Amino acid sequence: MSAILEVRNLIKEYPGVQAVAGVSFSVVAGTCFGLLGPNGAGKTTTVEMMEGICRPTAGQVLYRGEGQGAQFRAEAGIQFQSTALQDFLTVRETLVLFHSLYPKQADLETLIDLCQLRDLLERDNRKLSGGQRQRLLLAIALVNDPSIVFLDEPTTGLDPQARRSFWKLVQDIKAQGKTILLTTHYMEEAYVLCDEIAIMDRGRIIAQGSPAALLAAHFEDVILTLPKADFQPSAQFDAPLLDAGELWEVSTRDIPAALRGLESAGASLRNLRIRERTLEDLFLELTGRELRA
Ligand SMILES: Nc1ncnc2c1ncn2[C@@H]1O[C@H](COP(=O)(O)OP(=O)(O)OP(=O)(O)O)[C@@H](O)[C@H]1O
């Protein structure tokens, strides 16, 4: 497994803030690597150093074993968190403009279909919905047929349907053999898309691995959920019970025993559900804080 991109002990300091406090990892070619964490964790700063647009205070970024030189610039595609699109240009004009800037070019017609932009080609950039705009920004990131694509929080602010349709696009790009570096604060997004994730908090990586391996390493239980209306716990009920808003959550490694315990404590099991542990739970476990707090 060859690393296409390697980050060694990256540090970025701003006056009074250590945004990135010594981060190291490598990204295997053809995989999707996710940087996760809450607002202010240091994801964007890390990714901007990897993109070569922000100079590290210390540390190194290696692309195919070398610094970020001409080869990196030719082979990288970047979708920034926010990009100003030219007013008064249509989607087609915007794509043609960006496409013309690069010596190596993806086939524009294929790209238009891939990013589902064909019906929008004559539309003014200012008239695009959030999801349509993100698809255009993704197409712009792909105009030079990059080997590695950086996507910085590409689905933030999108509705769930637009988010899922963007996930499908990312999967299609990965199926073409491209490497993807994704930042997100949506744990489900990371779980669906990423082969490997690094969870960041306060400028450091606090856990790294495949989503499934990380969950398996940290949790052996499952969670039973039931509406609070269906269970009034008494002092006799001594299983770990978590308050999750409208629901009670019961952690257990022995489902039949937990069900018997709930039933004998007077709970109605009619609306009981079982869920597996998620990356949100992992973040809470690692930091003691909710991800979106
Ligand atoms: N140019 C800057 N000058 C000073 N501080 C900065 C600068 N850029 C980022 N920071 C600080 O560095 C820390 C990390 O910010 P960063 O944007 O990398 O986090 P993030 O994980 O990408 O968060 P978000 O999800 O909000 O984008 C924050 O405390 C931020 O305020």
Describe this structure in words.
There is one protein chain. The chain is α/β, with parallel strands linked by helices. The protein has 2 domains: 3-211, P-loop containing nucleotide triphosphate hydrolases (Rossmann fold, 3-Layer(aba) Sandwich), CATH 3.40.50.300; 220-276, no CATH class. It is built from 10 helices and 13 strands. The strands form 3 sheets. Strands 5-6-7-3-8-9 form a 6-stranded mixed beta sheet, sandwiched between helices. A 4-stranded antiparallel beta sheet has the order 11-12-10-13, with no helix packed on it. Strands 2-1-4 form a 3-stranded antiparallel beta sheet, covered by helices on one side. A hairpin with a 2-residue loop joins β8 (196-201) and β9. The chain is globular, with a radius of gyration of 22 Å. The two termini are 37 Å apart. The model has no long low-confidence stretch (mean pLDDT 90). It binds adenosine-5'-triphosphate.
Quick structural summary:
The chain has 293 residues and is an alpha/beta fold.
